[in-house]
Amino acid sequence: MFLHSIKYRSFLSLTAMAATLAWLPATTRGEMATELPQVNEFIVEMAARHDFTVSALRTIFDQVVLRPEIIEAISRPAEGKPWFQYRELFLTPARIDGGIEFWHKHRSALSIAQTRYGVEAAVIVAIIGVETRYGAKTGTHRVLEALTTLAFQYPKRAPFFRAQLEEYLLLTRNEGMDPLLAKGSYAGAMGLPQFMPTSFRDFAVDLNGDGHRDIWNNPDDAIGSVANYLHSNNWQPSGSIAVPVDLAKDADPDSLVGADLKPNLRLDRFRSLGLLPSEPVSGNPAAALLRLEGKDEPEYWLCFQNFYAITRYNRSPLYAMAVHQLAQEIAAGMNDHD
User: Does residue 293 carry a catalytic annotation?
Assistant: First the structure.
């Protein structure tokens, strides 16, 4: 939650809560962050680098509990599912209808964002729909606890999460937030668009001009922030995102599938190799070939720069395809309603 008016006034009550937690056995409450020497070293580094005081940071981290369930959650992401199962998580009537309702409710902000950043409203809505069901599921973990747990107990990506933790403390200070209050995902992603702290720093915007970048409670700012994120990653206004492929008899698509979805071959080259777009595509843009695991057989898709831009938001091609297809369904629903 975004509480710039509360700032640090609740520290005394939270300190009392920490004192209560200290009496619980470690198996019940989890390890306290300041029991780790690395956390105390981090506190000293933050004070030296960013002009925090050691005592103030220690007061904060004395109230942070390390959460083993966060390590469990990040070790089994939904992106581990095959595409035909992953798709069913997001292409549901409830999420499509929710997107149409969200678009109607926030039509003005979506129009402003589309005009300013060149990103189609349907894509903005779909990202917020995939991320948080339009703000209904923004996460229940304290962001500070999630980031601290991952920074110091998840060696696989510890440098990344340590940088996010550093940025989060700077963010909360700059925005006048109590760092102990904000809630988010198990990975520390925040607000309607599920921004990590560095994404907030680089891409969050104050679309409604009230002086705060509030991606927690202000859908206008969340909408503008998603649009700015994609725009900053070279979104092409009105450009294609992805189209399914029809294969010629002698085509060898698997030889053209690469790990990197950055567009690398022109569309005409794919056509010459027997990979034909099943929908009209304007011009001769660069594309990459994606192979997805369908229920009965593989699906092949030509993915363009806008698909690649979505993968900068979340690196999973499954995520990007879910956004694309959900955006198409929401746009079709809007056309039916209008």
Answer: no
Positions of E strands within the chain: 141-142, 183-184, 242-247, 265-266, 275-277, 286-293, 298-303
Encoding tokens for residue 33?
């962050």
Residue tagged active-site, from 120, 131, 145, 167: 131
Angle between helices 121-132 and 93-105 (to 10 degrees): 120
Contact 15, 63 (CB under 8 A): yes
Contact 227, 125 (CB under 8 A): no
Strand partners, 290: 301
User: Is 312's pLDDT higher than 80?
Assistant: yes
The verdict on pTM exceeding 0.70 is yes
Contact 208, 222 (CB under 8 A): no
b/e 115-136 (16+ beta carbons within 10 angstroms → b)? eebebbbbbbbbbbbbbbbbbe
Backbone angles phi, psi at 337, to 5 degrees: -70, -35
- Short-list 141, 201, 138, CA closest to 175: 201
The DSSP H or E segment spanning 200 is: helix 197-203
Q: Which residue has the tokens 């009230």?
A: 210
Give percent above pLDDT 70 in the chain: 90
- What mean pLDDT comes out for the span 275-285? 96
Asked if residues 113 and 223 have their Cβ atoms less than 8 Å apart, the reply is yes
Q: Cα 157 to the chain's mean position, in Å?
A: 17
Tokens of 324: 């694309």
Indicate whether 26 pLDDT > 70.
Answer: no
